[in-house]
LRAT domain-containing protein (Salix purpurea), 163 residues
Amino acid sequence: MTGIYVGNDRVIHFVQAIKANAGAPLMACKKCGFKRKDHLEVVRTCLDCFHKKGFLSGTRLYLYRYGFSRLECQIHRTHCTKMQSCPADQVVARAEEIYESGNQFGKYNFILNNCEYFATYCKCGTAISTQVDQGVEYVRELIQRNVHRYQQLQNGDFCSSSR
Ligand SMILES: [Zn+2]
């Protein structure tokens, strides 16, 4: 789960819509008024709702960092990207604009249009998901390894099962 902190204890983030009969809490948040059941897909909540009440329950809050080197991204793997962030006021303006427009970010899709796409679009002007990209890269590596193994086997080479 990623979102854009827009100040005054508020986060704008992109969440999957919950069906009316889902077992989500009925009570609206006393701090921000957010009600899990009747939200649109781009929502503005307090940090508590973003972090503790259902979205990120039991997880830690991280600051996602931009403009890291390729090596630093290899070391940290998550929570950082090589992409450069736009100035903060521009980032907040993008998030507010999408939120105020009544959810112009489209339908939530875990792979093709998730919270990270929303956040990177607000931050950088380009909607990407490093988590999905890393998953795609992992699958690509597996395929390449297997192709390499297959070529080794065709050539009569011994293929280690440890790689
Ligand atoms: Zn709240």
